[in-house]
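During the no-cost extension, the postdoctoral fellow (Dr. R.K.) reprocessed legacy sequence entries with the updated structure-token encoder. One reprocessed record is reproduced below for audit purposes.
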Amino acid sequence: MSKNKKAHEPLLHIVKRNALPQYRQWIIRIGAVLLALILAGIVTMILTGENPIRVYATMFDGAFGTGRRVWKLLQSLAMLLCVSLAVTPAFKMRFWNCGGEGQVLIGGLATVACMILLGGKIPNPLLIILMIVTSTIAGAIWAVIPAIFKAKFNTNETLFTLMMNYVAIQLVSFFEKYWENPKGSSNIGIVNQATHDGWLPTIGDKDYLLNILVVLVITVAMYIYLKYSKHGYELSVVGESENTARYIGVNVKKVILRTMALSGAVCGIAGLLLVGGTNHTISTTTAGGRGFTAIMVSWLAKFNPIYMVLTAFILAFLEVGAGEISTVYGFNESFSDIITGIILFFIIGSEFFINYELKFRKSAKEVK
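Re-encoded structure tokens follow.
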């Protein structure tokens, strides 16, 4: 029997690793990025005939070539990081909030409603305060709806939050036509362009600096909340085991509702910053897919808000750089998506080799 068992042993085993030291984890990640750049360079030469070094230099120039490009990169980083921070408490609780996109849109819709309906009718400082309050509450409510059904009826939160995205998109689409300007354009246009009512203030001559500073404050606050607060501890316990949480006296339903309200509120703030501080209008593409990209950012950073700064930066850089090579070389967007996809595949794949190792079947000589 033992011989038969040995004969049928698989050639390859996937074994869970013991925790690797931080420096070895980063060696694996850096190695994965280098391999990704080599493979992406080969693909670039095969598909386009361009020198991959020049293509990478163009990506770098697209992100850092001028001061304005740097500020745009930081703005993209800040907005992606904000949504990533928003979904992280829910993920750490093992509540798979895939509705960040819709929660951002609803927060933005509440913001633009204040700008259109109250702009010029009340003092601008009061208008901005109302925008902050309504966008935060709107995002929180949109997130709490699936949380209620999860807490009460144990519904599937992934499907529920995904469906809420489509409802949010259709609501924005409806109001795009309802508030269209000019009539017949099917879009809202720049709101209060002449008066700037409801536009978030700029700091100096830097249009995006306020957004960046707000997200920086949220990052620090979220880190402290998750690591040092009682609420952060409770949601971690619920994520590890709901039964354990109940046993030690944690109100699981309350934690679910509270955590999702927080996630939605921060998404609402992201919508406020995008509408009031960046675009000054809203459309169905205002969130720009950040609600889905944020899932990757949060997961790669192991739900650590400080590490998220790095992962969000990598993804923001790839997005900006990919757009630049499409413009400079005249490639269609599919090519830049291929390059981005290869790099992301290797980055995500490196996490597998950090957590697992491959072991080959030992030969009979080795066993002896």
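The radius of gyration is 24 Å. The mean pLDDT is 89. The remaining legacy entries will be reprocessed before the final report is submitted.
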